[in-house]
Amino acid sequence: MFQNLLQHKARVFLFVLAVFGFALIRNFENTLFYDPLLVFFKGEYSNNSIPALIEWKLYLSLFVRYFLNSALSVFIIYIIFKNKEHVKLTAYLYFFFFVVLMLLFIGLIHFFSEKVMAVFYVRRFLIQPIFLLLFIPGFYFQQEQVKKQNL
User: How far is it, in rounded angstroms, from Cα 76 to Cα 139?
Assistant: First the structure.
């Protein structure tokens, strides 16, 4: 296994670099992005209402953060699988999920702001690369199924 890693050291380096990119986004989230909900959700928020927001700034910030996480995720999918079809599907899914989640987030902020936990979880999907944790095993399983069919 270690010999296999040495053969693919460029891919391993790029993978580590992409993961480091996720770490940088997370580490500098307070300075890079406008998100008053970061502080709000770190405190006792279950009985409080959502704080005052500059909505356009928050939505733009969520878009930029989602885009950065998505770009790194698509890059990781390419590094791991070297399959352009997986990359295309991942990019389409990230776009689709962004549209659905942003519409849901905006609707929750405007019409159901007392549903703080719903806002928390939808926002979590927008700011964290959670879909990557689903796509990697999914593509791996699909790849293994194709290998079994070809035997």
Answer: 12
* Average pLDDT value for the chain: 88
pLDDT tens, position by position, 73-94: 999 999 999 999 999 999 999 9
Instruction: Please name the residues in contact with 126: beta carbons below 8 A apart, sequence gap of 6 or more.
Output: 62, 65, 66, 98, 101, 102, 105
Instruction: Please check the confidence at residue 7 and state whether its pLDDT lies above 90.
Output: no
Tokens 């996720």 — which residue?
A: 22
Q: CB–CB of 29/38 below 8 Å? A: yes
The pTM of the full predicted model, rounded to 2 decimals, is: 0.87
